[in-house]
């Protein structure tokens, strides 16, 4: 049947970046861990990005995932907030890439569809389904729960032709 694949899902944010780790073996998922890396909102932007980088690097070093998935940025009305989110997302992609992992990206609607079955839903529905899919899952923030949903989404999509081609390239 093969070995379990350890996947880290990352929900990027400048204040809080959630992470969630699952193991996927065939059609089964197992909760490994989750948490939130926080930055000091009173610190300079560069310092905050370093805090996110260092926190995620610690998680990757400890958990040793095989693959990573990050949620794509959505554009909102506040251009400054969108730009800052993009910078945090860059850190969320850089850390696993520097660790040698292929980093998959998923739109928020794709994550919702993979977890709750439809492309639109609220956080409560996502959290409920994460607990249904992995009853032992725990999370300390909405961001960590979202990160677990991203990891679950990747577990469902990682066998796609496009992902296999990207991983081979």
TrEMBL record:
Binds 2 Mg(2+) ion per subunit. It is an enzyme of class 3 (hydrolase). Its EC number is 3.1.21.10. Mg(2+) 1 binds at residues 11, 143. The active site is at residues 11, 71, 143. Pfam families: RuvC (PF02075). Keywords: Cytoplasm, DNA damage, DNA recombination, DNA repair, DNA-binding, Endonuclease, Hydrolase, Magnesium, Metal-binding, Nuclease. It catalyses: Endonucleolytic cleavage at a junction such as a reciprocal single-stranded crossover between two homologous DNA duplexes (Holliday junction). Mg(2+) 2 binds at residue 71. Its cofactor is Mg(2+). GO terms for cellular component: cytoplasm; Holliday junction resolvase complex. GO terms for biological process: DNA recombination; DNA repair; SOS response. It is found in: Cytoplasm. InterPro entries: RNaseH-like_sf (IPR012337), RNaseH_sf (IPR036397), X-over_junc_endoDNase_Mg_BS (IPR020563), X-over_junc_endoDNase_RuvC (IPR002176). The RuvA-RuvB-RuvC complex processes Holliday junction (HJ) DNA during genetic recombination and DNA repair. Endonuclease that resolves HJ intermediates. Cleaves cruciform DNA by making single-stranded nicks across the HJ at symmetrical positions within the homologous arms, yielding a 5'-phosphate and a 3'-hydroxyl group; requires a central core of homology in the junction. The consensus cleavage sequence is 5'-(A/T)TT(C/G)-3'. Cleavage occurs on the 3'-side of the TT dinucleotide at the point of strand exchange. Belongs to the RuvC family. Homodimer which binds Holliday junction (HJ) DNA. The HJ becomes 2-fold symmetrical on binding to RuvC with unstacked arms; it has a different conformation from HJ DNA in complex with RuvA. In the full resolvosome a probable DNA-RuvA(4)-RuvB(12)-RuvC(2) complex forms which resolves the HJ. This is Crossover junction endodeoxyribonuclease RuvC. The lineage of its organism: Bacteria, Pseudomonadati, Pseudomonadota, Alphaproteobacteria, Hyphomicrobiales.
